[in-house]
Amino acid sequence: MTVIRLLGIRDSALSVDEVYSAVGDHAAGGTTIFVGTVRDQDHGKPVTRLSYSAHPSAEDELRRVAEKVATDFPVTALAAVHRVGDLELGDIAVIVAVACPHRAEAFAASRRLIDDLKSEVPIWKNQLFTDGSAEWVGACE
To answer: Where along the sequence do coiled-coil regions lie (predicted)?
Structure first.
């Protein structure tokens, strides 16, 4: 069985339960889950909502990032899903989960997974502010 259990770029709501179920593994002593949500401000400026767009290669890049994490850490199971489309305050934008034999490894692998996803997977965020202005952000948040 592969350690990469679930990957996806989706235009529908994300489920923490689905991601957690995907990484369940009896060999894991530590499982970490990171859930990124739409917040009501960025750099002190009030946000009303946002929209994510993805390049057609985004899923391939997500797989590449996940494979690198699975190679660099003793991962027993890994999952990552990111939402695209219009999101409201409080909506889940991204979920990553990693299971490893020990908690320190799970924390480190999870941190690398979300950081590399944000910096390397071509997903862009358009933030809409209460003053009517908008801002494109080059990597997912």
So the answer is: none
For 43-82, the pLDDT digits (tens) are 889 999 999 999 999 999 999 999 999 999 999 999 999 9
Residue type, 99: A
Task: Read off the amino acid at residue 134.
Answer: A
Q: What is the value of pTM for the model shown? A: 0.94
Question: What per-residue confidence (pLDDT) applies to 1?
Answer: 59
Alpha-carbon separation of residue 14 from 9, 40, 70, 101, 138 (angstroms): 10, 19, 22, 26, 22
Count of other CB atoms within 10 angstroms of residue 62: 26
- As a CATH number, domain 4-137 is 3.90.1170.40
CA angle 7, 138, 123 (to 5 degrees): 20
At 42, which amino acid appears? D
Q: Domain coordinates of the chain in residue numbers?
A: 4-137
Q: Is 42 left (phi over 0), alpha (psi -120 to 50) or beta?
A: beta
Residue 48 CA neighbour count, 13 Å, CB half:
8
CB 23 within 8 A of CB 31: yes
| Count of residues in the chain | 141
